[in-house]
Amino acid sequence: MRRTPLLLFTLASLLAAPRTRAAEKSPHLKNIRQLTFGGQNAEAYWSPDGRRLIFQSTRDGYKCDQIYVMNADGSGVRLVSTGKGVTTCGYFLPDGKHILYASTHEAGPACPPRPDRSKGYVWPVYAGYDIYLATDEGKIIKKLTNAPGYDAEATVNWKTGRILYTSKASGDLDLWTMKTDGSGKRRVTTTLGYDGGAFYSRDGSKIVWRAHHPATEAARTRYLDLLAQDLTTPMKMELFLADADGSNVRQLTDFGCASFAPQFTPDGKRIIFSSNKNNCDGYRFELFLIDVDGENLEQVTDFGVFTAFPEFSPDGKKLVFTSSYKATQRYEFNIFVADWVP
């Protein structure tokens, strides 16, 4: 769940994706088009010119996610990560010629082991993840993080050039920012618990993210015990909003469910996100809108399956998202794009 972290094999474990009824009656989505067909594809994000998408996918014989770039119509798919380890969270830099993503390839060429499900439904936060800067052709330019532990879930504000990401550098899973060359690292969140999957508003003044902050001593003990094993739990996440420096934090949702993948609308007044709030113990995730003050909740999709990772195109006219809608087999997730009706 953005990405976190963490995603496609996580998505596959989440959900068997059945064929669904036609449910394309959202007042906000028109002309829905499917860009990928088969396999596990997720977290597609736009290039600054709106002509391409970067996404993660398990395909081409790879056993876990790699990073790909394709044209905005789904054509021209090509690998841009190393093909080693597991990757997550690709994103374009402001110049449109460079990308960043998290990868474990330096920790080993094989896919890392899946978590032990005897511990419950948990996510791995692999210590081998670091964030890399590369050209849009896939040549790695620089390793941007080198602190011990998990570094991933990076996004970029194209106006300020700041990178926002999740790191275990403090010993906890906090939000951090840095410049595009990896310098100027600053910790943004300090509350005990997982903070991740964060995005900037377009003007770079605000951030929105998902978080799980354990509220009881027993919950804190479990969180810290799992974290020591490079694990965390994803099924109780709320959304938070703050100024870009981490000040003026306020909680947007209080569903007691899993809400994640938040994005600002182009005007910065609302947040679009994914949640299973209609069935907190289930794996039906739909897209919702909510004002930045936490009011006026509105459901956007009604596919009845897993739908997440929305992002508006640079011109605000389109929305890209991931869904198991129209899947032809279990564990299939595809990327869709639709015209956005404000």
Q: What CATH architecture would you give?
A: 6 Propeller
CATH topology: Neuraminidase
Nearest-angstrom radius of gyration? 18 Å
Give the ordered list of helices and strands: HEEEEEEEEEEEEEEEEHEEEEEEEEEE
Strand order of the largest sheet: 1-26-25-24
**Percent in strands:** 35-45%
Mean pLDDT: 93
Report the sheet with the most strands, covering strand number, pairing sense and barrel closure.
4 strands, antiparallel
Number of self-contained structural domains: 1
Number of strands: 26
**Would you identify the CATH H-level superfamily?**
TolB, C-terminal domain
Distance between the termini: 25 Å
What coarse outline follows from CA principal-axis ratios? Answer: globular
What percentage of residues falls in helices of 4 or more residues?
under 10%
CATH class: Mainly Beta
What's the multimeric state? single chain
Unreliable spans are 1-21
By DSSP (H or I, 4+ residues per run), the number of helices equals 2
Structural class: mainly beta
Describe the structure.
There is one protein chain. The protein has a four-stranded antiparallel β-sheet, with no helix packed on it. It has helices at residues 8-14, 217-228; strands at residues 29-34, 40-46, 52-58, 66-71, 78-79, 87-92, 98-103, 123-124, 130-135, 140-143, 151-156, 163-167, 174-178, 186-187, 194-200, 206-212, 231-232, 238-243, 250-251, 259-264, 270-275, 286-291, 298-299, 307-312, 318-323, 334-340. 47% of the residues are buried. 6% of the residues lie in helices and 39% in strands. The protein is globular. It has one domain (8-340): TolB, C-terminal domain (Neuraminidase). It has 342 residues and is mainly beta.
